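User: Okay, second chain of the day. Same drill as before: sequence in, structure tokens out.
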Amino acid sequence: MRWPSISRRGLFKGLGIAAATGATIGVLPGCTNPEQQQVPEPMVVESDRAINVLEEYEEAELSLSERETWKVPLGSVLHESAGTWIPVTQAGSSAAPMVKGCAINLSDGKLHEVVSNVRGDSHTVVIYDVRCSDEVYAWVELDMLTHAWVLYAARFNNGAIDGTPTTLWEGGEDYDPPGFACAGNAVLWQVLPALGKSKTSEHSFCYLWKMGDANAQSVVESPGRFAIAPSISGDLVILAPRVRADEGVYYGVTAYSLGDNLATVVDQLVLPQTVKPFYATRIGDRFVVSIEASYSSGGMFGTMGTYIGPSAGPFVSLAREPSANVAGKDDVFVIKSRTSYFVVDVKKSTYSILTAANRCVDYGEYPARVGQSSDFVTFATVKSEASGYPDSVTVRSFAL
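Assistant: Same drill. Structure tokens below.
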């Protein structure tokens, strides 16, 4: 197998944070190489073979019931999580810090400030992205001038960091800031060569680290860039590495078992040549794949929309431009469309509409849940009734 030619040390000098990083992990071998697995044939389905939700399903009364509604400060952006705590990036009250890492507790709706200041000793370093589970909090700091970045993680307890953060990885402008996710006591992240830079032709890698370990493990290798960031769905991790590399550009939307450190491929859906997923997850025994663009070939998957079905088909399609990943439970799928959501029940062959929060801005609500979940959480920037200007963010929770 190939190992990435990434220097994990030299960039600390550029960021000026060597004294503040705490523990720094090593990396163990043990990468799962898709090229060495038995990869299914690409799934090419004619467009007229898919079940069209808008044409063949009946509209029904909304089955989701709203449980809680909270307001958080303007400038708060929620990110996906499967637990009681939802990670939040929040605009700082001044230029330093420009962004803060926070988390909202769904049991009471209270917002907690978790990372108030960057660890990087530079006025150009900002908190770029955050993720968390109920046990671990992870964040990326980015130097806006040099594009160097560092991924940190720390034990997370009752809305606060417990102990000294661990440095998981550093990268420079030749590598994109990582897509990453948290589940239980684990953090997963991808290292992708940036397009148009000196490392563009390098392989990409997904790493797994568990709280307290001295080392991370390389778990999945892609002969090219992954198509999507890692996401969690129940006890599965969803990735889309390049597969069948000797035949062309193919992406394999793959569900791995988190319980055995991604050693087991639970299911895989190989898309037609050149077709790239925009979002993907797996709910129950069905994949959910969103395609952002329309292609000149590829059948059903070559047309913009969201597709639901087991890897062998048949598939249900929603012909709407995707703008967020999908959440759901068993046979029910919640799919963002413009400002609101379609709630699709593939067992009952029905759909309903979950409307956006009152007075929300034009782009509507976004989900803070992805994949299999017992609830659905959304957030939306809303306007003041008096002034008509945005003044807060509304967070809503629904039972699925």
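The chain has two helices and 34 strands.

User: Thanks, on to the next one.
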